[in-house]
Amino acid sequence: TPVGDNNEVLNSPVAAISLLEYAQNYVDSYRVAEEAGIFYGSFLGVNFDEACRHHCRACLPMPHFTLDGAVSSCDMAYSKDTKFKDLIFGEWKDETKEIVYFPDRINNLRARTVESIAECVECEVSSNCGGGCLGEAYYETGSMNGIRPDHCEAVKYLAEHLPRNQGRFPLHHP
User: Following DSSP, what letter does each residue of the chain receive, concatenated?
Assistant: First the structure.
């Protein structure tokens, strides 16, 4: 169900389905695409190509410049005034024409690994999940090491039905 900034349910003409239901339907679509020689990816299985410790580039972190001069690790932190302050790891200083980095935030981003997320430590598919999307989990839990249980359930379903660790996927995000 789509939610707004205060977790209020938004009115939407789009019918909401659970991530597990999406995953179940995705498996069928994946197989049809595979038979046609087409790669059909999903954000839920983005790390099924090889083992990982992080879900996405936000934890490396890879820089994104925002329009107001922030250096963000995540698409969800799109300005200096974001509520995702922990995802901003630098700032452009116009007067000196340089970027000032925040080492403590960089270290916190890099520390979000499957070894630091309690739910991932014993999870049999954590090395192909990486804890899920940092931005989404942080939004929903307020924690850098938070997870989305519905994401975990869907990824575990995909792991039961799709191949893993067979080479890089032809995509570049996250």
Answer: --B-TTSPBPP-SSPP--HHHHHHHHHHHHHHHHHTT-----GGGTT-SS--SSSSGGGTTPPEE-TTSEEESSTT--STT-S-GGGEEEEEETTTTEEEE-HHHHHHHHT-STTTSHHHHT-TTGGGTTTS-HHHHHHHHS-TT---HHHHHHHHHHHHHS--SSS--S----
What the block records as the tokens of 52 is 């990982």
Is the pLDDT at 13 greater than 90? The verdict is: no
Structure tokens at 136: 């989404």
Distance CA 55, CA 111 (A): 12
Query: Token digits for 40?
Result: 């059909």
Paired residues of 92 in beta bridges: 99
E strand or H helix that includes residue 158: helix 149-161
| pLDDT tens digit sequence for 21-40 | 999 999 999 999 999 999 88
- Beta-carbon count within 10 A of 70 CB: 22
Q: Given a cut of 70, is residue 1 above it in pLDDT?
A: no
pLDDT tens for residues 52-90? Answer: 999 888 999 999 999 999 999 999 999 999 999 999 999
Q: How far is CA 167 from CA 42, 46, 170, 174, in A?
A: 16, 12, 10, 16
